[in-house]
Amino acid sequence: MVRTLLGAALVLVAGCSVATEDRSLSAPSAESTPVTIEFRSNWTQAPSGSLVRGDKAVLKFDPSRAGTCRASANSEWSTTAHYRINGGAVGSIEAAGYSPSNGKASREIALTHVGDLEVWFETTNRFGCQSWDSNFGKNYHFVIASPTNEPEWVGNGASVISRSTCANGEPCDSDLVPLQQWFRFDTWARERAAITNVYFEVWKAGTTDFDNSKLWQQIDVQVHHRPAGYGPFQTRYVDFDTRRGNNARYAFSLRDIDLLAVRNGSSVITKSDCPTFPLALSPDGQYVEATAEFYITVNGVDYRPTTGGTFKGKFTDYIGRYEVCFTP
Questions:
Q1: Mean pLDDT throughout 63-82?
Q2: How far apart are CA 34 and CA 71, in angstroms?
Q3: Which CATH code for domain 29-145?
Q4: Which of 100, 145, 165, 167 falls between 20 and 30 A from 54, CA-CA?
């Protein structure tokens, strides 16, 4: 078996206008039929179909490959499959023989990243025997591909809350706040800001790199938002904004997901009109605050912070408009 892997870096080369942010796409959430990778008695091995990021793989190991450690009864020997993706952390699943979990443990491998799936097998028995099926120490390697409709890159996410614009009505670079940081939509933004947008860019070769009249059919972009940790996510479609080099830039307004939007700037009069999600007071007691969270999907693939979770921000407004919500 091989305990180390000389990993190959996956380098994305594209004619994007700017592509400096780490890609942070998560696997699609839709369920699919796992692909079976057969390890046959004739010492050949192959998957039953393409391995695609976001899917799962099941290993079918022929017991005859267990070698000299295999005993006549299943209770006396066990084969464990070890695996890792792109040289990452090693995972293990039951493959053949005695099942320590009595068949309850999952035998599926989640294909979480594009790249290399590396597999090897270890067989042991009750008498202390240990043997390996590891392609003579090189291990078995299989390619994990990208989903067909997946964009090659999504990034450059930023929020802009500003009263001014720069050349050609574009937001000024100095006003761009990376989505990794919290936005703050306060009373000034609510009353005076001319731009209150979230921007991000998508690149998919042959789709976003020209004036594509069918872009709206080929790239489906949605934002999923809610009060942080409260209730189900609400979904809105996100419109194409403009092209940036070979990227398509998309934008939506923070006003569209404003948790404290009061109709016509009026106050909440009765408790029945108060938000059902948690409200907080600012430290000085002059403002009401509500935290929002959101993530974005591009053709069903999540775009989230590089650390996982959701993007977040805080909406604030004058306490006077919500005072009834804080009275007994």
A1: 85
A2: 30
A3: 2.60.40
A4: 100
For the segment 62-91, the average pLDDT, to the nearest whole number, is: 89
- Sign of the Cα torsion 235, 239, 244, 248 reads positive
CB–CB of 246/279 below 8 Å? no
Residue showing tokens 């070698």: 67
> What is the spatial distance between Cα 113 and Cα 147, in angstroms, rounded to a whole number?
11
Quick: pLDDT tens for 137-180. Answer: 999 999 998 888 889 899 999 999 999 999 888 999 999 999 99
CATH 2.60.40 in the chain, residues?
29-145
Token pair, residue 194, equals 């001319």
Three-state DSSP class for residue 98: coil
28: pLDDT strictly greater than 80: no
pLDDT tier for residue 73 given thresholds of 50, 70 and 90:
low
> Containing H/E element for 267?
none
**Complete DSSP assignment for 2-60:** -S---PPP------BS---SPP-EEPP-S--PPEEEEE-TTS-EEESS-EETTSEEEEE
